[in-house]
Each structure stands twice: as C-alpha cells, then as structure tokens.
Inverse folding.
C-alpha cells in the first residue's frame, strides 16, 4: 500500500511544543483516491474573477467538487491525473460536498481508484440498513477543527464481524461511481491516539 502523507489530510501539521508528535499509525484520517481530468472554472468573488481548478471524475455524484491546488493544476489543465481528497458523506453513505485536496496520487496507483481508506472510531452499526458510521476526530496539532461522521455501506458479513461500537477501526473500500456510495470491503482493528489506556 502507498505511504500517504497523512499530515496533509487536515489532521496533523505539527505537534504542540509540549507534545511528542503522533505516529501515523494512531492518527484519525479519511482519504479518497480519484482519477480524472484537470479542469478550471471561473469563480466570481466581489469584483474579481478567480480561476478554480478541480478534478472532473465521470460518474461522481452531482454536487461533489474535488478542488485542486492552483500551482499543481494550472500546468496540467486537460490532463488525466490521480489525486487524494478528504472524504465527506451524507447520512445515506453518498459522497458529498466540496472535498479538500490532500496530495497527488502516483500513477502506479491509479488503477485502484476510486478507492478509500480511513482510520476512525466506530459509532453505529445498522445491520438492517447495511450501514455503519465512523467518527473522524481532530488530531492534536492538526488542522481539522471539529469531528465529523462518515456513513458507509458494507456487506452483512462484514458488519456482523465488526468490533463493538466505540472501537477504533481501519477501513478500506470503494466508491460506486453511479450511486456515489462508499462501500467498505475490508476492515481491521486499529489503535488511535485517544484510546483509553
């Protein structure tokens, strides 16, 4: 698996001076890998017109906007690239919103997209609906200011195998492009920095 710069996921920038930096194995994060074409559109803000670069991915739900950093995107306009974005979902497990970019995805990993992985705390499991919810919390010294919850779909066999609500989990899965839903395909127990000792 690729080593992702989790510090760029809006979580860890640098640890406060009185704290030891956290290991990447114990931080909260949520990342979506996508491959698409670099596009630009104009954004009118007051009296200015600003270019807004984004990754256009066929089949992603309407209303999902995958922003790209201008300096990276501008020379690659029209090219196909892979990028990692922070994930957000609605209560139906559908990808939603304006997703912040994390970093460029190396070409040898493009075939795995659309792929997601995350580390968080299990907050709910609904066997009847085939869903689970996972909370991603801010990491000390990180940029994320408030926790958020992701709703994800999963096969019944996977849901039945999950640990109790409140447990730390690492999840991997895929995005169903036509429906925009995130489906968990694999899980394993995880450790998080705020686990009880």
């Amino acid at each position: 698996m690729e080593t992702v710069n989790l510090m760029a996921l809006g979580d860890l920038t640098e640890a406060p001076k009185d704290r030891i930096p956290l290991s990447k194995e114990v931080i909260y994060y949520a990342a979506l890998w996508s491959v698409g074409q670099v596009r630009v559109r104009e954004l009118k803000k007051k009296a200015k017109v600003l270019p807004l670069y984004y990754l256009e991915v066929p089949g992603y739900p309407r209303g999902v906007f995958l922003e790209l950093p201008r300096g990276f995107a501008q020379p690659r306009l029209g090219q196909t690239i892979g990028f990692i974005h922070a994930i957000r979902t609605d209560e139906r497990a559908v990808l939603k919103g304006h997703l912040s970019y994390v970093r460029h995805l190396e070409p040898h990993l493009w075939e795995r997209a659309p792929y997601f992985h995350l580390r968080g705390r299990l907050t709910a499991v609904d066997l009847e609906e085939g869903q689970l919810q996972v909370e991603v919390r801010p990491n000390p010294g990180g940029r994320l200011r408030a926790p958020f919850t992701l709703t994800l779909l999963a096969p019944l066999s996977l849901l039945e195998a999950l640990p109790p609500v409140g447990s730390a989990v690492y999840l991997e899965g895929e995005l169903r492009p036509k429906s925009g839903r995130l489906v968990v395909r694999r899980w394993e127990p995880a450790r998080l920095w705020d686990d009880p000792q």
User: Anything to note?
Assistant: The two ends are 29 Å apart (CA to CA). Residues 30-189 form one domain. Helices lie at 70-73, 156-161.
